[in-house]
From TrEMBL:
Limits of the ABC transporter domain: 355-589
A family per Pfam: ABC_tran
Cellular compartments annotated: Cell membrane
Source species taxonomy: Bacteria, Pseudomonadati, Thermomicrobiota, Thermomicrobia, Thermomicrobiales
Spans through the membrane: 38-63, 75-93, 157-174, 180-198
Keywords from the UniProt entry: ATP-binding, Cell membrane, Membrane, Nucleotide-binding, Transmembrane, Transmembrane helix, Transport
The keyword Transmembrane helix belongs to this UniProt entry's keyword annotation: yes
Source species, domain of life: Bacteria
Listed name of the protein: Lipid A export ATP-binding/permease protein MsbA
Length: 602
């Protein structure tokens, strides 16, 4: 418990927000829908605090009026009264914990839903500049910090505050002089707590850094275990992990040392306060200015007095840490979602599939454009191929078609209509995208193929699989289309994952199909199978192909060679070879590389 208190203090200082009051007001605002429950919880908290304050008073009266005089009937009365008070307090404490816990869980559930909803609606530029791990940490770790506070800390904070008020008032009413003597130790305790908190801040910050290093290294090495074994790096990686683990162990030992010193220091102060009460209270009893029962009650109050202060200190710092977490959560919720459709945006009806770029300029950073004055036209049903070196801007061009990003200059037109003048849903509903690294979701193969068309029948799913030649390998699996896929489809091959991704895109029946290096990681035999399937499936559809293997785009109607965000060459395969420019150089190089092994074998 003490370790948690110190760690919470360290977190508080390290994670101070710029405006905690605003965050606190927003967090309190989340509680407004539960006002009746909050009022009930406060009533139970007050009742529990009163029970805790009255208990020692009854004990003192029992000593003076029953035990001292030897009145058995009076002693029985006080015993029953004490039992009744503590039973009421226990029932009230249980009720308040349940009420506050339920309120907290409802608030947290609402926050989680709000975060997920906002993440689904944020523009891709938001994810481009933030690591996925950081976002996951906000959704899990920061929400968990709030969970601990709302479910447990808030109950403790309110309960201990009311208990402390009740104890202070009762002690003052019993004997104000002895109460002042008891309170003299408070400044010393606050100074001690502050001293340990400053040391703990440094120690626990170090533990967080080292455990983060361990976690990051562990994740990286597990993901890259194949490469580690392939390059004979296992022993080196084990030694490096051992160093990280040792650094984390040392940091935790240091933090534990501070924790182990803090608890005895508080105990010493509590004992000192008790000694002061016994000394001064004994003097008052000796002078007949206080009864033995009152002194006994005071001793119980002193013991109870320090516990609320310790818990309040712990929960207060936990509250500050929770506010830091809440601020990071609200940072996501305050992010502007994807630009809304224009007020006069219309629904894009059935399209033929014509694509036109008119002087399009775009940059992820406005000061550094990625595309410059890109202009071209693709007629409905034609195939456009984008080629060029890595980073030339090919994927960016393809991403502007479904409005994953907005052009900063010029216009992107579909069938002559500016994509900014139509609703995104109607535009994207007629476009499908297949990436180089297909992402498959947890679920069955049938569910993954039907992902892009909700409610698709099994017959439609199988038809899409047959069209991409995926049906045979799926049928050969033990559970066929009901075979569950592991994370990212790790239990099937890369080529099979790509075939499923193609089937998923084709089932959506798009008018425009974008293939972003879709065959780059597939063996030539599977590639030939896909090419045959696409020749039939893409008939009458417009396709945009980003290709690394130039041999796969020789039949394209239009090939654009992109270099540094500009179109440097355009034409069909024969025209570009005749031009003897960059495309011809790239093609000959690939042709030579693919022919070299055969020539050597000959």
């Amino acid at each position: 418990m003490m370790r948690q208190a110190l760690e919470s203090m360290a977190n508080t200082t390290a994670e101070k927000a710029s405006d905690r009051r605003t965050t606190a007001r927003r967090l309190i605002g989340e509680l407004r829908p539960y006002r009746p429950r909050i009022v009930a919880a406060l009533g139970l908290i007050i009742l529990s605090a009163l029970a805790q304050a009255v208990g020692p008073l009854i004990i003192g009266r029992a000593i003076d009026r029953a035990i001292g005089p030897g009145d058995r009937r009076a002693l029985l009365f006080y015993m029953l009264a004490l039992a009744g008070v503590y039973v009421i307090g226990a029932v009230a404490a249980r009720g308040q914990t349940r009420q506050v816990g339920e309120i907290g869980q409802r608030v947290l559930a609402g926050l989680r839903e709000g975060i997920f909803d906002r993440l689904q609606r944020l523009p891709l530029t938001y994810f481009d500049r933030r690591p996925v791990g950081d976002l996951i940490s906000r959704v899990t770790n920061d929400v968990d910090t709030l969970n601990q506070f709302l479910s447990q800390g808030l109950t403790q904070l309110l309960g201990q505050l009311f208990s402390l008020v009740g104890i202070v008032v009762t002690m003052t009413l019993l004997d104000w002089q002895l109460a002042l003597v008891s309170f003299t130790i408070i400044p010393v305790m606050l100074l001690t707590t502050n001293l340990f908190a400053s040391r703990a801040r440094i120690a626990f910050r170090r533990t967080r850094e080292t455990v983060g290093d361990v976690t990051a290294g562990l994740q990286e090495e597990i993901v890259g275990v194949r490469q580690a074994q392939a390059f004979n790096r296992t022993e080196f990686n084990i030694a490096r992990f051992r160093q990280r683990n040792e650094a984390n162990r040392s940091a935790n030992v240091q933090a534990t040392g501070i924790t182990s010193a803090f608890a005895p220091a508080i105990d010493v102060l509590s004992t000192l306060s008790t000694a002061l009460v016994i000394g001064f209270g004994g003097y008052l009893v000796y002078r007949d200015r206080m009864t033995v029962g009152t002194l006994a009650a005071f001793l119980i109050y002193v013991q109870q007095f320090f516990r609320p202060i310790q818990l309040i200190s712990q929960v207060y710092t936990q509250a500050q840490s929770s506010l830091a977490g809440a601020e990071r959560i609200y940072t996501i919720l305050d992010e502007a979602p994807e630009t809304a459709d224009a007020p006069d945006a219309t629904v894009l009806g059935q399209i033929a599939g014509g694509i036109t770029f008119e002087g399009v300029t775009f940059g992820y950073d406005a000061a550094r454009p990625v595309l410059r004055d890109v202009t071209f036209t693709v007629e409905p049903g034609q195939t456009l191929a984008l080629v060029g070196r890595t980073g030339a801007g090919k994927t960016t061009i393809a991403s502007l078609i479904p409005r994953f990003y907005e052009a900063t200059g010029g216009a992107v037109l579909i069938d002559g209509r500016d994509v900014r003048g139509v609703t995104r849903a109607s535009l994207r509903g007629q476009i499908a995208v297949v990436l180089q690294e297909p992402f498959l979701f947890s679920g069955t193969i049938a569910e993954n193929i039907g992902y892009g068309k909700l409610g698709a029948s099994r017959e439609a799913v199988e038809a899409a699989a047959r069209a991409t030649d995926a049906h045979d390998f799926i049928s050969a699996l033990p559970q066929g289309y009901d075979t569950p896929l592991g994370e990212g489809g790790g239990n099937i091959s890369q080529g099979q994952r790509q075939l499923i991704a193609l089937a998923r895109a084709l089932l959506a029946d798009p008018r425009i199909l974008i293939l972003d290096e879709a065959t780059a990681n597939i063996d030539t035999r599977t590639e030939a199978t896909i090419q045959r399937a696409l020749a039939t499936v893409l008939a009458g559809r417009t396709s945009v192909i980003i290709a690394h293997r130039l041999s796969t785009i020789r039949g394209s109607d239009l090939i654009l060679v992109i270099e540094d965000g500009e179109i440097v060459e355009r034409g069909n395969h024969a025209d570009l070879l005749a031009l003897d420019g960059l495309y011809a150089t790239l093609y000959r190089r690939q042709f030579r590389d693919t022919r070299a092994p055969s020539a050597a074998a000959d």
